[in-house]
UniProtKB/TrEMBL annotation:
Coiled-coil intervals: none
Binding site for 3'-phosphoadenylyl sulfate: R137, Y207, K224, G225, V226, K227, H228
Disulfide pairings: C208-C218
Leader peptide range in chain numbering: none
Alphabetic keyword roster: Disulfide bond, Glycoprotein, Transferase
Gene Ontology MF annotations: [heparan sulfate]-glucosamine 3-sulfotransferase activity
Entries under InterPro entries matching the protein: NST/OST, P-loop_NTPase, Sulfotransferase_dom
Ranges of residues in domain Sulfotransferase: 47-147
Catalytic residues, chain numbering: K56 (for sulfotransferase activity)
Highest taxon listed in the record's lineage: Eukaryota
Name of the protein in its database record: Sulfotransferase domain-containing protein
Length: 261
């Protein structure tokens, strides 16, 4: 039987093109399903990590740096839910959180929780497995003397190491990557933050984060935190004498000497 080669080739080409078209449509459908799944998975979740501290200790710098991590979703501002708005529902608190995926850690901060003992049991009631990060700095410069007293209340509910981690606020400004690596480990996150996304700005003399789009973002608060307020030497000497036993007690509790001498 004679075969028309041109007709045969035409049908073969048409068949191949048709197969490619089906494959392309299947790929597009698969991409659409993945995008839809991501959109569906993104929802507002209660925080799995809460940052606490005192004023000017570095909580804003910490949450800003952690915002670099793709496995972290950070809440804007401070909700003050567990102290000022506890009469509102958990759903209201959830509404203050960012949209996140199931594999992300939702992170919130309210610095003054540290000194509000009533919030400790309230946070535990929300989630006994929540992780607490405390940021501290030399009390001589931020006028706080009761780290040891406060931390004892927190560690009764949230054990150090397993559920509570202490960040050196001064080191967070002078050597952020080393402190952030410890935070990643504490939260069980893959190591992502590095010199590729945190760089030193020599003009501002402060470390800045580099966004995923390559934009350098420097924190004004972090920059302000580099210089200590001016204190009369005689007054500073008296403050250091006063704080010394309190600091030593704090070092013993957390198992780390911060060198506030």
């Amino acid at each position: 039987m004679m075969v028309d080669i041109a007709t045969y080739d035409g049908k073969l080409v048409e068949s191949i093109l048709g197969q490619r078209s089906v494959q392309e449509r299947a790929m597009e459908h698969s991409r659409a399903k993945r995008m839809l799944a991501k959109q569906i998975a993104r929802q507002r979740r209660l925080p799995q990590c809460i940052i606490i501290g005192v004023m000017k200790c570095g909580t804003s710098a910490l949450i800003s740096f952690m915002n670099l991590h793709p496995d972290v979703a950070t809440a804007p501002g401070e909700s003050n839910y567990f102290n000022n708005y506890y009469n509102r529902t958990l759903e209201w608190y959830r509404s203050q959180m960012p949209l996140s995926r199931a594999n992300q850690t939702t992170m919130s901060k309210t610095a003054n929780y540290f000194e509000k003992y009533e919030v400790i049991d309230r946070i535990y009631a929300m989630d006994p497995n929540v992780k607490i990060i405390l940021v501290v700095r030399d009390p001589v410069y931020i006028y706080r003397s009761s780290y040891a007293l406060h931390i004892e209340h927190w560690t009764r509910v949230f054990p150090l190491g397993a559920h509570l981690h202490v960040v050196d606020g001064a080191k967070l400004i002078s050597d952020p990557i080393s402190e952030l690596r410890k935070v990643e480990a504490f939260l069980g996150l893959r190591h992502y933050i590095s010199g590729n996304n945190i760089v030193f700005d020599h003009e501002r003399k402060v470390y800045c984060r580099v966004s995923r789009s390559g934009v350098k973002l420097c924190l004004d608060k972090a920059a302000k935190g580099v210089k200590h307020p001016t204190i009369d030497p005689a007054a500073e000497a008296k403050l250091r004498t006063y704080f010394k036993p309190l600091n030593q007690r704090f070092y013993q509790i957390v198992g780390h000497d911060f060198g506030w001498t």
